[in-house]
Amino acid sequence: MVVGVEAYRRSGMTCTLASCIxxxxxxxxxxxxxxxxxxxxxxxxHQLGYRLALAGGVLPESMRALxxxxxxxxxxxxxxxTFDEVPSLDLLLSAVAIDAAGNESEPSEPFVVxxxxxxxxxxxDRCEDELDPDTDLxxxxxxxxxxxxxxxxxxxxxxxxxxxxLARERTPALGLYGVTLGLLALxxxxxxxxxxxxxx
Length: 200
Fold this sequence. Notes:
Largest sheet: 4 strands, mixed
Helix content: 10-25%
Oligomer: single chain
Number of domains: 1
């Protein structure tokens, strides 16, 4: 039933020497649990519900309301620990499928929920520590962002999940060298339009 589990963070502000990009929702944490459709002859897969149970470890406060309760269908299941809680996640959970008549499957084998150490940059799907400091994030946005992540939506489209959007920010003060690089980057991008900042 459980085919994949991820626990990751997304930084609300990612800066390089060239530019900064911020999400309107700030720093976020996510546990994504991908579930295969349960076999049920009488209930379509999108109408099946699920319940998660704690099998080991300590739940962070922000996740307690969604454990042990029936969750409406559609996969994946997304839990929202806080940004600061994600690194300490060390849990065993199990999942039960619930059909339209209230019948329940056998619990899944317990699965591990742990942080893999990756904090995603505010744009794209790379970890922050994988980004070259000279990367122009506005170029990275144009080349790589497809709007497929759960935390951020592409400007000009409807927001997904948390409803965050991106906004380009000014380069922070980094001394004379940083200011010079910032001015050069700004001059090269003057003709480009900036993404709109839309609040959640």
